[in-house]
Amino acid sequence: MTDRLLIIDFGSQVTQLIARRVRESGVYCEIHPFNRVDAESIRKFAPKAIILSGGPASVTAAGAPLPPAAVYESGLPVFGICYGEQAMCAQLGGTVEGSDHREFGRAELEVTDDCVLFEGIWPRGTRQQVWMSHGDRVTSLPPGFRPVGVSVGAPFAAIADDKRRYYGVQFHPEVVHTPEGARLLQNFTRHVAGCSGDWTMAAFRAQAIARIRDQVGKGRVVCGLSGGVDSSVAAVLIHEAVGDQLTCIFVDHGLMRQNEAEQVVTMFRERFNIALVHRDASELFLRKLAGQTDPESKRKIIGGLFIDVFDEEATRLGGADFLAQGTLYPDVIESVAFDGGPSVTIKSHHNVGGLPERMNMKLVEPLRELFKDEVRALGRELGLPEEMVGRHPFPGPGLAIRIPGQEITQEKLEILRKADHIYLQEIRRAGLYGEIWQAFAVLLPVRTVGVMGDSRSYDYACALRAVTSTDGMTAESYPFSHEFLARTATRIINEVPGINRVTYDVTSKPPGTIEWE
Ligand code: XMP
């Protein structure tokens, strides 16, 4: 079995980044919330080491979340990061105090002693850039520990107990603002925990195929294809495992981008030779969307219809034992919430959420352990073309939420498709596609006056949107050159009848969202 590492989560915003850094070093790891870990779960998971994440709580407060004693009784190496360091110190006999001096952002670590964590990166006596975010700090060490680094706000910014293989840092090695942080984590996983670093996408592929065969046996599997990366990679992987026991169903809601539906059909049928049902349901969707202008109503109608049509097609196939889904790890990680406040639905994204409940099939979710960038790497490993693997995310309700505040009609969809196509063509031509998280055109519910040749025009305005992001939770507008924007606007106005004005959206998320609806 490949080496595994357990990350115990105390609710830090950046816990997922610890997992990503650890995996990038070739070590498989999982994030488990602190209140779900006990001696039994540690024994079952069988990690080679444990990392304690950061978190928003204070160990000085009553009822603070703490690692279970089983962590220390396991005899495994333990690495505490930020709150994790404080919790470890408080539990093992040190002291932690609140401080008036909050350290937040870039800070300097003075490396005061040699340490296995610093091997090959940080010699004793040097100063290194790290990223801090803490109020409390450790003020005395538990027996057995020695300090190996200090910062202005933290006398014990890095600590070590080599005998028990316990280490702690007050800073965050998992964020990019600690430039050598990934190597520091790798020193822990390789040199302290002794992990071999052999978890690669090639290894994952082989394991995943074995697991799918094991789960599915001789059963039949259906998989809903959307044209996106996740469902495509899941389908190709499952096909590799169980061949023609898999049938893909592509419910074409008619709200895809230009040529997209044909591309999906050609790729899966011809290139991968996967059995594919293509149901063109665009008329049905448009009919049911008639008169609808509210974003949430559009989502509900599209989500509900999608399930109906999918169910119909699956039944027509004679049913199946398994439903494949491209669920990813971030959807599976149980989150740790401390504030207890209600969460507000900004947009109901889980537009196909009702499918498994309704269909009485078992789920096959071969990507549940992977982050998005790992799914892309797996897609490459499986031979999916780069234009599919590197594709920007596309929302389930498709172009319906890019025609905001208006009724969706075939005519508007055609106008939007053309504008969007030109925009993406220009982005690709400029070599910017890979730098951008998502880029698209939005058809605005406003007509504006223009002059085209000698005559007056009165046509739609469209907005262009492009953002950078790491996970879609926050985003920045992409800083195109004015020349790029002007060139693209000119092309759209000249080539797309129905549009006579183009604007660029410079809103960040928050306060905006990525989509307009
Ligand atoms: P927002 O607009 O909330 O979008 O900033 C964040 C990410 O989610 C996508 N998105 C959706 N995806 N169904 C989906 O499957 C939806 O209803 C939906 N709404 C937004 C959006 O494209 C972006 O990637």
Q: What topology, given as strand order, has the largest sheet?
A: 2-1-3-4-11-10-9-6-7
- Sheet-strand content, in percent, reads 15-25%
Bound molecules: xanthosine-5'-monophosphate
Whole-number mean pLDDT: 94
Specify the helix fraction band: 25-40%
User: How many helices?
Assistant: 16
Low-confidence stretches: none
In this structure, how is the largest beta sheet organized? 9 strands, mixed
The first-to-last residue Cα distance is 46 Å
Structural class: alpha/beta
Walk me through this protein's architecture.
This protein has 517 residues and is α/β, with parallel strands linked by helices. 33% of the residues lie in helices and 23% in strands. It has 16 helices and 20 strands. It has helices at 15-24, 39-45, 70-73, 83-92, 181-192, 201-216, 229-242, 260-271, 282-289, 295-316, 329-332, 355-359, 372-381, 386-389, 410-429, 482-495; strands at 4-9, 28-33, 49-52, 78-81, 95-97, 103-111, 127-134, 137-140, 146-150, 158-161, 166-169, 221-224, 246-252, 275-280, 322-324, 362-364, 438-452, 455-468, 476-477, 499-504. It has a nine-stranded mixed β-sheet, sandwiched between helices. The protein has a five-stranded parallel β-sheet with strand order 14-13-12-15-16, with helices on both faces. Helix 6 (201-216) crosses helix 13 and helix 7 packs across helix 13 (372-381). Xanthosine-5'-monophosphate binds next to loops.
